[in-house]
Amino acid sequence: MKSGKFEYVVTERGSEIERISGLGRDQVLYLLLKGVTFSIATSYELRNRRSTGDGRAVWFPYQENLMASLRPAWGLRLKAEHEHILRTFPLNE
Fold first, then answer.
1. Kind of pairing, strands 15-23 and 6-12?
2. CA 13 to mean position of chain CA atoms
3. What is the tally of structural domains in the chain?
4. Domain of 53?
5. Could you give the CA distance from residue 44 to residue 71 in angstroms, rounded to a whole number?
6. Rounded to 5 degrees, what angle do the CA atoms 75, 24, 33 make?
7. What is the phi/psi pair of residue 14, to 5°?
8. 28-76 confidence digits (pLDDT tens)
9. In a domain, 9, yes or no
């Protein structure tokens, strides 16, 4: 934490993948809980996998609902992020 701000650092196998600096408390909580809910939602999708279709059709809404249950604004923010992803990489159904 630098001067009251947080840094969010993603590493994999000892290598830094991503660093976001200057985050406020709400922003860093959003990122941390987005990661937690991602794990929960993808596990849910795996248990409820459809034989055809794109897993994101199951896990995206599930994760959005989880985030909205924590903070409604976070659910809306994640939904907008998912919509952006789907515009670039549409569902394979």
1. antiparallel
2. 21
3. 1
4. 25-88
5. 20
6. 35
7. 85, 0
8. 999 999 999 999 999 999 999 988 789 999 999 999 999 999 999 999 9
9. no
